[in-house]
Amino acid sequence: MLSDVPPLRPEDLRTDWVFAYGSLIWNPGFDYCRAELARLHGYHRAFCIGSTRYRGTPEQPGVVLGLDRGGACIGLAYQFSPDSRAVSLEALFQREIPDWAERVYRPSVVQIRLADGERVSALAFVAERQSRWYRRLPETEILKTLREAQGQRGPNRDYAINTWQALRDRGVNDPRLARLARLAGADAGQATTGTRAR
User: Fold this and answer.
1) Burial class (CB in 10 A: 0-12, 13-18, 19+), 187
2) How many CB atoms lie within 10 A of CB 100?
């Protein structure tokens, strides 16, 4: 059962930034005027969200990334273009939370530090631990799912590989993600061009 505390809606937000840690890094899908590497403390990137649409099906769910409690995460901070901020926020919420009753993310405002040291408030889509699609799986099961699941946006492995490559291209090393991406198929030349969304 989801929390009774109402989640943030686009109209509630006063920040002009969003923190990307998964597919938003390589396929943001909205206009932005600035993109910077950023660090978020208190959350880490984890394959903890079941995907029954984009990277899996109800019969064979995939697994995608969420921000889970503890640790830290390096990702990309995007600043919305002022002229299209409202439209971008609506599109982003529709992408990440297509069904509010079945949401897997909790939109939250977090404090991040940009690469130049500047601190900003940013929208982040945090794993909704009370969702029935929240998962804490052993690495062997994550890997099996990445290799086998496929959804509307393509093979689950592509999601992992694209995220790993996008971070690596920006000089970010995420050892666990790198290991999973390689084992899921990156070493076999199965990486994609990074044009498909989560």
Assistant:
1) exposed
2) 11
- Tell me whether residue 131 is in a domain: yes
Per-residue confidence (pLDDT) for residue 190, from 0 to 100: 52
Closest CA to 38 of 93, 79, 92: 79
Token reading at 99: 């069904």
What is the Cα–Cα distance from 151 to 148, expressed in whole angstroms? Answer: 10
Does residue 75 surpass a pLDDT of 50?
yes
Question: Is 71 a member of any domain?
Answer: yes
**DSSP collapsed to 3 states, 88-136:** HHHHHHHHHCCCHHHCCEEEEEEEEEECCCCEEEEEEEEECCCCCCECC
Tell whether 172 is covered by a domain: no
What is the C-alpha to C-alpha distance for residues 169 and 114, in angstroms, rounded to an integer?
Answer: 17
Q: What does the pLDDT read at residue 5?
A: 56
| Assigned token pair, 125 | 């889509």
How many residues are recorded in the chain? 198
pTM of the complete model? 0.90
Is residue 162, in this structure, part of any structural domain at all?
no
